[in-house]
Structures are given as C-alpha cells and as structure tokens.
Amino acid sequence: MLFNVDAACDQIIGKRETQQDSLEVFQIDDSNWLSVLADGMGGHKGGREASKIAVGVFHRAFIESEIANIKERFIDCLQQVNDAIYDYVEENPDMDGMGTTFVAMLTDGERIQWISVGDSPMWLIENDSIERINENHSMAAVLQKQVEKGEITEEEARFSPQRSQLLEAVMGDDIQMVDAPDNPLGITSNSTVLIASDGVETCREEELLEMANDNDGNAKALTFQILERVEQHERPGQDNASVIAISFLDGDTELDDQAEVEDVATASGKK
C-alpha cells in the first residue's frame, strides 16, 4: 500500500558554540523521498565542514547515480562522501581528524531503505512501539550488551563517560562498519521514522513515542516538540540536536502543513 508521506526537519544548537550537524529531507519525485543527516566531529570548524560535505556530496551523488540497486547506490555515494572528506583534509592539513556520523534513508511511500555509519539513531515508531532499527557504532551498543549480561546497570550504561565514544565514522579512511540492509523494510499505516543526531537522545525513547502519538503524523509539529523537549531537559553541555521526521499516512489522511514542506527542505546551522 502506498502511503502519503509527511516530512520535516529541524535542529537546535544546544549548549554548544557552533552547529556541527547538517541535515535535509527532499522529495525526488511523486513518491520517493531521501533524508540525509550528518553529525560532525573534529573541532568546531572541522565538524561543521565534515557534516556539510557529507550531506551535499551524498545528495548530488545520489541524484546523479545510475546504479539501480539501492544498497549498491548508497554504498557508492557514501564512498564519494568519504573521498571528498579525504580530499578536503589533504588540502587543509589543520583539519586532520575531522569526520562525521552519517545516516541516509530512501522511501518510496511504502518501504524504507537506509545506510548509516556511527551512532546517529534511526527509530521506527509503529503500533504504539518504538525501536531503533539502524546499528549503533559506538560504545553505547557495547555497554547495552553488558547490561543484558547483568554486568552493569541501565543507569551505569546511560551515564557512562564511554557512552559517546565512536567505533566508526566517515573520516576519509577505510570504513569498516556500515549498516546497509540488502532489502527495504516494509512500512505499516500511520507509522513514523525519526532520524536524529545523538543530541536528541537527551529524550528517552518512551518520550519520543509519546510525542509521536500526540502529533498524529504531523511531522513538522513532531520535530518542533522533540527539540523543545530536549531544551526543557536543560542538560548541562547539551549537544547539537537535529531531527528528521517522516510520517506514513493513509491515503485519505489530511496532511497538515504539507504545503510548507517544499521539494527541498534543509536545515544547517539553524537556531
């Protein structure tokens, strides 16, 4: 079944001096939408430049690609991003060590397919449940396994100083850990996908589920509420927080504010 797609994206700077996240969601044609999010690392300028390069290069490469298989197309576009970051560091040696996490998702209105590197989460909300569906290439995933084995508590894992340590990122080097499923995942009616930088994880998954249910598929209202809730937590040193919401609605569902989502909706350095 082909669903109506309602899409929105936005971000806040948090307690940081600069915005190092970049993101966009754009409509390719009548049914296909591509969402891209990158959370930069490597100092103020390095992180900002890395995330901008990642989103811009991937967008262009995906549109220009003639590769039919989406997984192969994703991997080829990611390699172009990696090469572009390598070239940038070669030309700017003071940027050595810069890089970014990366998530891209394509939907045709009934299925989703993605590629991700790093710790930026992608959640699927459906049937009153929320589940992270992309891999977490950070120590947070390792700590969670320790929780499951009873080696540490949930609270110890949540507040561990190791939690945010990345195991993989796009830095111009060989990328060993990539999450890119072979086949698309089918979507059910009135479900929502959230793609975010890890700054959004100031909110617990239960909060994200509650907010999604409150907004009945209105992507713009949902992104606004999530970022507002992040700010309300008043977390010391709050990281940049960026979120993309993609809602899948029945064909007869009114798309509130859809007219405000243009063919290309981007967010970079806002607020």
Task: Specify the structural class.
Answer: alpha+beta
Shape: globular
Ends distance: 38 Å
So what's the CATH class? Alpha Beta
What value does the average pLDDT take?
92
Q: How many domains is the backbone divided into?
A: 1
The helix count comes to 6
Low-confidence stretches: 257-271
The amount of beta strand, in percent, is 25-35%
Structural overview:
With 271 residues, the chain is an alpha+beta fold. The radius of gyration is 18 Å and the shape is globular. The protein has one domain: 4-Layer Sandwich (Phosphatase 2c, domain 1). The C terminus is likely disordered. A hairpin with a 2-residue loop joins strand 7 and strand 8. The strands form two sheets. Strands 2, 3, 4, 5, 6, 9 and 12 form a seven-stranded antiparallel beta sheet that branches. Strands 1-11-10-7-8 form a five-stranded antiparallel beta sheet, covered by helices on one side.
